[in-house]
Write a structure and sequence with these properties.
Elements lengths: L2 E4 L4 E5 L3 E7 L5 E8 L51 E5 L9 E9 L18 E9 L4 E10 L4 E10 L5 E13 L5 E8 L2 E9 L4 E6 L8 E8 L10 E7 L4 E7 L5 E7 L6 E3 L4 E3 L2 E7 L2 H17 L12 E3 L1 H4 L5 H14 L3 E4 L27 H11 L3 E6 L3 E3 L3 H5 L18 E3 L5 H18 L3 E4 L21 H19 L4 E4 L9 H4 L4 E3 L6 H12 L7 E6 L12 H8 L3 E5 L7 H23 L1 E4 L7 E7 L5 E8 L9 E3 L9 E8 L13 E3 H7 L1 E3 L8 E8 L4
Parallel strand pairs: 21-22, 21-30, 22-23, 23-26, 26-27, 27-28, 28-29, 29-30
Antiparallel strand pairs: 1-2, 2-3, 3-4, 5-10, 6-7, 7-8, 8-9, 9-19, 9-20, 10-17, 10-18, 11-12, 11-14, 13-16, 14-15, 15-20, 16-17, 24-25, 31-32, 32-33, 33-38, 34-37, 35-36, 35-38
Helix pairs in contact: 6-7, 9-10
The structure holds alpha-D-galactopyranose (GLA).
């Protein structure tokens, strides 16, 4: 049993294989957090000693018990305006203007299986794979009911959390903040590891000590954003890849979010995560309910790599849906960097033929095939093919690609509209614009008001018809600006604070309908590269274009940061031309291959511009990729270095430890180089591994690599020393396989 309730101490224990999470019904029915950490089979209600620390108020009923305060006791879901001055989880205002939430346990229930969230993506499980605890809290005076939901995934060491808020009164009330979860870590010192960035430089890892302040990451952009990712790790300052306590917290949400970490006066650290509260105000009519997005929590005492492995498996098996969640993804070639807007059907077919000849399986026609879109200023919203470019229509192109033995994909940006489009001319009020003001434009485009059901219905019918008639096998679902001018003509003044969240609910409704109706179509998420790379989108799109930056050396840090939370199979990674279009850097084709194999693999170049030798190399790359694909998709990803040294290395290890691919890329050319030494990880120490393949740049002195067989122990404890590699950005790839017993 994953969930147990102890009647005597009034505590719940939520157990996974290696972790326990405990909470207790405390004095006056307050729900106190007790413990989250290594697996424990006894209750920890003895841990938190009430203390009078002055200027921390006491509940009225406790009168002179000055040592008991909500301001000092660990809380499961902090209220507001009720004595806890730390980060609040919820803020409301009643019709009478009373704000505050004083929450106490009303009832609870344990259920088999995993709860679902209406209209929101959330983890799924078979009935036997998860259990749900529902604890209902209430603020009687405000007629407010808050249901805390816990999904316990025993084998995965994951506990999901979500919250449903209901107005049980007879007058409306307003939600001004509604977090998905609150986690108090009452003892110890913690570092915050988070992933920040900008366009083309997403998810850079930054590790900061949690001092006596509030650290806040988030996005107010209407998308989870390039700038911050809705995922963070709290770890011991001494935690490394291989040891130490680590908590991972990831929102399955793609809109504006906020994750705050506060160390309070007593040294206790609190994390509160959920929808961003700035500009948020949700009106709850009597009887109405609001669901907060899911928060995915994981804990390990075995370091950052173990945390990543638990999260990777969880995302692969309980977030990603559809046939491609478990099926190998086709090797694709995307035309964006091959042609930008400069193409027609003939050119696409020429690229497709060349691509097919190399072994590519899916041809994706990127932006520019619809309306009269010769640049990025026009036609979004008019999703019919440009007859100048595709005189035979989309169907005919798709049919020709299919006849070549290729799958066919197209680029779409359904959430947006260009001023120069028939859609905008017909429905100017469908764009997010504030009355009496000129809107902000982003990439010369406006965002559609997806908070309006009629806009969502229009898009889903139009897209369904497009997918139906064209027969495409793949959609790249892009989103190339952030939201501004949040105003919807359909909502009354006191509901305007709902638009950003309703927009994302509209995106989810659309994706939900389309992915259900077209289960064989592979959807790849994108927002100017990785501007919406989150577990919410992954519930519909099992892969997401990680960054518009395809420079393999820049990608090292982007993919390094992304790998902490997200598995390689979800990270779109393509080989592009050299010199690179974003940085101008020249890199070897082998290095571009090496870096792209750490993700959902593909190409982003014109195969017609390759030399015969490069074409031959790419044929071999695709064959190699296929032979390693099960290992890359389903094995575990191990970071072997950090992102700061002269080289970056990682390995993919099969979960039965039978095969291992080691990749290393040099970031700096060094004179008189130091030994290039690596210790592999996670192997079977007793087993003998055969070095079946080793790839170094030509001219490398590989005498040192003569030895072909190593015990797992030798590879892990002594490690291996690779020969020095010269030149710009060389890489090494080693493939090791466990020796056959016979
Ligand atoms: C975004 C995407 C690119 C490409 C362009 C097309 O920037 O991230 O990959 O599809 O749009 O306009």
């Amino acid at each position: 049993m994953g969930i147990a309730f102890d009647k005597i101490s009034q505590t719940w224990s939520l157990h996974t294989a290696d972790t326990s999470y405990q909470m207790q019904i405390g004095p006056l029915g307050y729900l106190l957090h007790l413990y989250y950490g290594r697996r424990l089979d006894e209750s920890t209600e003895y841990l938190h000693l009430p203390r009078d620390c002055g200027f921390s108020p006491n509940p009225y009923e406790l009168q002179d018990e000055r040592e008991w305060s909500l301001d000092t006791m660990p809380q499961e879901y902090s209220g507001s305006n009720c004595g806890d001055y730390r980060l609040s989880s919820i803020r409301i205002e009643t019709a009478d203007g009373i704000s505050g939430a004083d929450l106490r346990v009303k009832s609870w229930e344990i259920r088999r299986g995993k709860y679902e969230l209406e209209g929101l993506p959330s983890a799924y499980a078979r009935e036997d794979d998860a259990e749900t605890l529902s604890v209902i809290l209430q603020d009687e005076a405000a007629a407010l009911e808050v249901e805390l939901l816990y999904g316990v995934f025993y084998k995965q060491n994951v506990i999901t959390r979500a919250v449903r808020i209901t107005n049980r009164g007879s007058a409306p009330l307003y939600l001004d903040k509604a977090a998905s979860g609150c986690l108090d870590l009452p003892f110890g010192e913690w570092d915050l590891l988070h992933f920040h960035g900008r366009y083309a430089v997403e998810r850079q890892a930054e590790r900061l000590p949690v001092g006596n302040s509030v650290l806040s990451i988030g996005s107010k952009r209407g998308a989870s954003s390039h700038q911050h990712n809705p995922f963070l790790i709290l770890c011991e300052p001494s935690a490394t890849e291989d040891s130490g306590e680590c908590y991972g917290a990831m929102l399955a949400y793609s809109g504006s979010f906020r994750m705050d970490v506060e160390k309070d006066q007593g040294g206790s650290v609190r994390l509160v995560a959920g929808i961003h509260d700035e500009g948020f105000r949700w009106k709850l009519e009597p009887g109405a309910q609001f669901s907060c997005p899911e928060l995915i929590l994981s804990y390990t005492h075995r370091g950052l790599t173990a945390l990543s492995h638990d999260l990777h498996r969880f995302i692969r098996e309980h977030i990603c849906r559809g046939i491609y969640a478990s099926r190998p993804r086709p090797v694709l070639l995307n035309t964006w960097e091959a042609a930008y807007f400069d193409f027609d059907g003939e050119k696409i077919l020429r690229i497709a033929k060349d691509a097919k000849d190399l072994g590519v399986e899916l041809l994706v026609m990127d932006d520019g095939w619809f309306g009269h879109r010769d640049d990025d200023r026009t036609s979004l919203g008019d999703w019919t093919e440009d007859s100048r470019k595709l005189p035979g229509g989309l169907e005919s192109l798709v049919e020709k690609l299919h006849m070549m033995g290729l799958k066919a994909g197209i680029w779409l940006e359904p959430e947006m509209v260009s001023e120069d489009s028939d859609l905008y001319r017909k429905h100017p009020d469908w764009a997010l614009i504030m009355p009496g003001r000129k809107p902000q434009i982003g990439r010369s485009q406006l965002a559609l008001d997806l908070s309006r059901p009629e806009v969502v219905d229009y898009l889903s019918e139009m897209l369904s018809a497009l997918l139906q008639r064209s027969g495409v096998d793949y959609i790249k679902w892009d989103m190339n600006r952030n939201l501004t001018d949040l105003y919807s003509s359909e909502l009354p003044p006191d509901r305007q604070g709902e638009i950003a969240h309703r927009y994302i609910l509209g995106v989810y409704t659309l994706l939900d309908r389309l992915t259900r109706e077209f289960p064989r179509v592979l959807f790849e998420g994108c927002a100017g590269g990785g501007g919406r790379f989150d577990a919410g989108m992954l519930a519909y799109c099992p892969q997401i274009w990680c960054s518009d930056n395809t420079d393999p050396i820049a990608r090292l840090n982007i993919q390094y940061g992304t790998s902490f939370g997200y598995p390689p199979a979800t990270i779109g990674a393509h080989i592009s031309a050299s010199p690179n279009h974003q940085t101008g850097r020249t890199t070897p084709l082998e290095t571009r291959f090496c870096v792209a194999t750490a993700g959902a693999f593909g190409y982003e170049l014109d195969p017609g511009k390759l030399s015969t030798e490069e074409q031959e190399t790419i044929r071999k790359q695709i064959r190699d990729y296929h032979s390693w694909q099960p290992l890359l998709d389903k094995g575990d990803y191990w970071r072997l270095t950090d992102d700061r040294g002269s080289f970056v290395a990682w390995q993919n290890l099969a979960s039965d430890r039978s095969e291992c691919l080691v990749s290393l890329v040099m970031r700096e050319a060094e004179a008189n180089p130091r030994p290039l030494h690596l210790r592999l990880k996670g192997l079977d120490p007793e087993a003998v591994y055969v070095l079946e393949e080793q790839r170094f740049p030509s001219g490398t002195d590989i005498k040192a690599m003569k030895k072909r067989c190593f015990t797992g122990a030798a590879l892990m404890y002594a490690g291996i020393t690779l020969p020095a590699m010269r030149g710009d950005y060389p890489c090494a790839i080693l493939y090791l396989k466990i020796q056959d017993e016979k």
